[in-house]
Recover the amino acids of this structure.
């Protein structure tokens, strides 16, 4: 089993559970939902979400996904810390909730930085 991760506000996750599927705002805007590998999660969290409270980290089993998953190159000029795992997973369709195998609390520390919850 391979896992990928998605950072989501807890309020959005609560809404998603009642709907039974997660589309994410980037599916309509960009055509896919952004995910991260285990090695990319902290980079994404600490650059895009630094200091944001009320987040969750969804752990997703890639074998249970029903929409196509593609690993694609990161943005141009990606930092060296991504060299070990340079391709980001993008889900081209909605996330089926039965693929979510764990939901981890994901809160920043006093300095606004995130740490892996596992």
């Amino acid at each position: 089993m391979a896992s990928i991760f998605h950072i989501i506000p807890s309020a959005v996750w609560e809404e998603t559970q009642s709907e039974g599927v997660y589309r994410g705002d980037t599916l309509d805007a960009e055509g896919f939902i952004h995910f991260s590998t285990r090695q990319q999660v902290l980079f994404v969290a600490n650059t895009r979400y630094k200091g944001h409270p009320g987040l969750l980290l969804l752990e997703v089993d890639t074998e249970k996904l029903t929409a196509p998953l593609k690993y694609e190159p990161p943005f141009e000029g990606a930092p060296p810390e991504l060299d070990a795992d340079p391709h980001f997973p993008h889900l081209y369709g909605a996330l089926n909730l039965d693929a979510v195998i764990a939901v981890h609390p994901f809160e920043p520390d006093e300095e606004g930085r995130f740490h892996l919850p596992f």
